[in-house]
Structures are given as structure tokens and as C-alpha cells.
Amino acid sequence: MSRQKFLKPALLAGAAVAAISTSAFSADFAKLGKGADISTICGEKPASVAMIDGYGGNTWRKIAFAEMKDEASKCPNIKRTVYSDAGGDAQKYNSDINSFVAQGYDIIMTFADFGDAALPAYRAAMQAGAVVVPYNAKLTGTPGVDYTANPHQEMTEVGKEMARWAGTNVKKGNVVFLGGFPGAATSQAIMEGIRDGIKDYPDLKLLDENYVVTNWNPADAQKVVAGLIAKYPQIDVVMSDYGVISLAGIKAFQQVGLPVPAQTVLASQNDINCKYLADKAAGKGWRYMSLDSTSTIVRFALRQGLAAFEGTKLDETTNLVPLTYVDSFKSQDPKCDENAPPDADFTSLLTQDELMKAIR
């Protein structure tokens, strides 16, 4: 069936955020999305910002950098922004931090891909006078000593929310969680939350107490899921921390003629959402929940770093959770645009044009 029957014209990507619902997360956490107004904390000192990824290169990371630049553009005193990708190399990651500090960048924003292992590099950058803001993963270090601030998604809460949704709606069956690289801090924390949350639902069973490594690569994910299908006669719920690998897993099930298990996804994208709508329209729908607006975390990170550098007041928590974007049990459907790239994320705050430029 053609997607045209249920597609809407290209939308402002940021407008999709308005359709995102609240979730069952505790009120102790702030929800990702727009957040505070950065114009109130810009200050006057000229500032430069370096953003460093441990595992960059995928579309989510490109969108996140574009979100950071968009947020920075609201403060005319932010004069320079630069990006680097360590390509999964922890040594290069630390070297990139040291290099940007040596070049005189004022604010160092780093995706905390390597967790606490990078604390010595953050601490050294702090001691050299830089503002250091590792984000996304929750670290055990001390703010003001090991880093300036650590805005993070409460990934254990994400895992608990996935377990809650599956336990409440799917109710029983076998569960697997597809994560990223070996040792990825975010995947580890979500897995911890899933293990904890699933205890409340005795009819749900984890087939593996650890996350299944996919390297956040769709080709690897499809092979891995094919192996899971061969190993386990029944899989009822597949959880993941990236929509691209969820879609690869869905294809693996359909290629062998099996029904698609229920899906819970952190960070969906256009292709999996179009696939969901297409299968639903064809009478082959599957149960689906996504947690999104995740790329907006870099805006929170920039605001923390800028306020610290400028000495301006920012009243915004660093404890963050994503928003529920899709929930098949609530008839809460995603956007789909056949003219957009497959891995476009319409839950970012970028406009359609900005999003297209970011992911070309």
C-alpha cells in the first residue's frame, strides 16, 4: 500500500513535539523538549563551544549537533561552535577534549559515551579552566570537580518505563533489549532499568539479562535479531535504544514470515514510523511505543555550560526524561513523510529545512 494514503505534507519538524504526550515518569524529572529560554542567560562574554561525540556518525548525532548550533544562534556572543567524532575510540575522545581545551574553547560539551571512564579527562579539562558538560549518560563524579554539570536522561527510568508499558499492555511473554556498542553507558543503564522494572510483571521474562550488542548499526542488528529468532522459539517484546536498529529487527522477523513482536523504542525516526503506519494500514499492525525528543538534550547541555561560563542564573534541572511520542494502545500515531530521509527525527525542535540540512 502506498504511504500516500496516510502521509501528511511536510511539516515543521518542531511542530510534532506539540503532539507528544506525557508519560508515567515521575514529576521529579524535567521532560526533554524546549526547556528554558537561553536568551535570558546569554551574558556578554564572547564564548566558544566544542561538541564531542564518542560514537558519532549516525543521523541522531548529526541532528543533535544541529540542535546545539540552533540553540547557540540565539546568543550573539557565542562566536564559534565546532564538532568532533572519536569514532568509538576512547583514547581519541580524551585527546579531542584535550585538543579543544588547548585551542582555547570555553565550553566543552561531550556525549558521555564512555561513562565514568572519561572522568579523568573531564577533570583535567576543568583544571585547565574549561567549562565541561558531559551529557546524556548519568555519571558518578562530583559537579564542580569532575565536570561542571551533567544533564542526563534518567536511562534507568527509561528502562523502567519500557518495562511498565510492556507489563501493562502486552502483559506476558519473552523480552529482549537491543543496545549499542559493548560497554555503552546508555544501553547499560536502560538494561538496568528494564531488569528492575520487569520484576513488577512476573509474566514477562527477559531472555537475556544483558543487552544484545548491535553497535547501533542496522546491518549488525538485522543479523543479531536473525540469530535471536533462531535461538528462541518465542519473542514477544523487543526493546531498543535506537529506532534504526528496531526497524532492522522488524525486517528480520518479517523476512522469515513471523509476526512482528511489540516494540518499545528510545529515539524513533521517520522510517520506522512510516513502516508502522504502512503495516497498520495493511492490517498487519504491531504494538508500538516510542520515547522521543531525545536530541534536544544538547540544548539543555549548552544552557548549563553557558550559564556557568557567563555567571548567569539558570534554574533548570539536569535530571531529564524523554516524551512518549507513539503509543499504539492509545491510538497515538507518529508523523510520516515520504519526502524526508528515512532517519529523520520529527521530534527535534528543528524546522523541516534545518532538519534536512543537518542530515544530508
Automatic annotation (TrEMBL):
Q: Which residues form the Periplasmic binding protein domain?
A: 55-259
- Grouped into one coarse class, the protein's main location is periplasm
Q: Which UniProt keywords apply?
A: Signal
Signal peptide interval: 1-26
GO MF terms, alphabetically ordered: carbohydrate binding
The keyword Signal belongs to this UniProt entry's keyword annotation:
yes
Q: Where in the cell is it found?
A: Periplasm
Q: Which GO terms describe its cellular component?
A: outer membrane-bounded periplasmic space
Could you say which protein family the record assigns here? Belongs to the bacterial solute-binding protein 2 family.
PANTHER family annotated for this entry?
Answer: ABC-TYPE SUGAR TRANSPORT SYSTEM PERIPLASMIC COMPONENT-LIKE PROTEIN, D-XYLOSE-BINDING PERIPLASMIC PROTEIN
Protein name per UniProt: Ribose transport system substrate-binding protein
Q: From which source organism is this entry?
A: Rhizobium multihospitium
